């Protein structure tokens, strides 16, 4: 369906070449100061046309709050968010296809690109599922669907920052085979690399954006990545990569023991983003190559005096801030892999809906690499996961606080640091 979350529910709507796209947010706590000014920065970071390395589609992506606020405060009622599409060009999808020529037979022009399911797009699968599909662009499978996610995520992000001091920052860590942190013998995974650990501890969104247009926080590496993307763009081709994200100051105790483990909901969220192909958290797949004696994260006393932060932390963080599906208060960090964009300008031999072979040469305006613009999308989905988990744990902690303390069996709420809710918030 088009709804994400249980307590902070986000329903997105709209197609890539429709009148508008947006979202409805249901479950936002009342009393949060909120205006378009709080949402627009993330929208601007996601918008097309940011550089020569992104799609030239000219959209301002100005968000409008339609409901759910009054006098700059959230009311606790559904928040309607709308962004008007201003630069639709559906005619791009009425050309660029031709029937194949075999054995010297003349090439016959096809009616339009819609005579073919585009390779690695959702045209065929949507048609199989619904019996009908959008005639221009990807419809709901288009990256413009993510506008609603980013708008809603900005609201979640603001609440988490103000209520818990949560910071969520993502950045580009690879494009094609160019990587920010190359695996080494000593550090087969970035989880043990001191430079990586320092980066995720300190990096901010403003710093990431200093490295536009690629958003890889290293002068030399970002330059190489820029050259790689430009090379594939000039070939009328595309390339994929990886976005790394860190969640700092996440309350402990978030997530459920079995089917809704925090890393499972993060994976669900990330793999719902268009073009994603992989997810790994903490040491990830690299952690499978080392023994348990190396991978285990010993506990140490925390030096944090901030109310609500855990009394214990871990010396290392191969777990990525989550153990048993529940956050432990350490940094949560993960990687999201994105495939090369499916729309390319090169001629591709394929088969049309009429089962006849043909050649498809896509027109339209498309990103040669989605990674730079995916950064705020990953941040937004992370915020939606965390706020949903926070609201669930807050309800649990509040209900628990109503019960008499059973001495020797449980830790009093006023003393605990493991409810996921800072003292005074339960």
Automatic annotation (TrEMBL):
Its cofactor is FMNH2. It comes from the Eukaryota. GO terms for cellular component: cytosol. One of its GO terms (molecular function) is FMN binding. GO terms for biological process: amino acid biosynthetic process; aromatic amino acid family biosynthetic process; chorismate biosynthetic process. Residues 42-64, 299-320 are annotated as: Disordered. Pathway: Metabolic intermediate biosynthesis; chorismate biosynthesis; chorismate from D-erythrose 4-phosphate and phosphoenolpyruvate: step 7/7. Signal peptide: none annotated. Reduced FMN (FMNH(2)). InterPro entries: Chorismate_synth, Chorismate_synth_AroC_sf, Chorismate_synthase_CS. Keywords: Amino-acid biosynthesis, Aromatic amino acid biosynthesis, Lyase. The keyword Lipoprotein does not apply. It catalyses: 5-O-(1-carboxyvinyl)-3-phosphoshikimate = chorismate + phosphate. Its EC number is 4.2.3.5. Homotetramer. Belongs to the chorismate synthase family. HAMAP family: Chorismate_synth. This is Chorismate synthase.
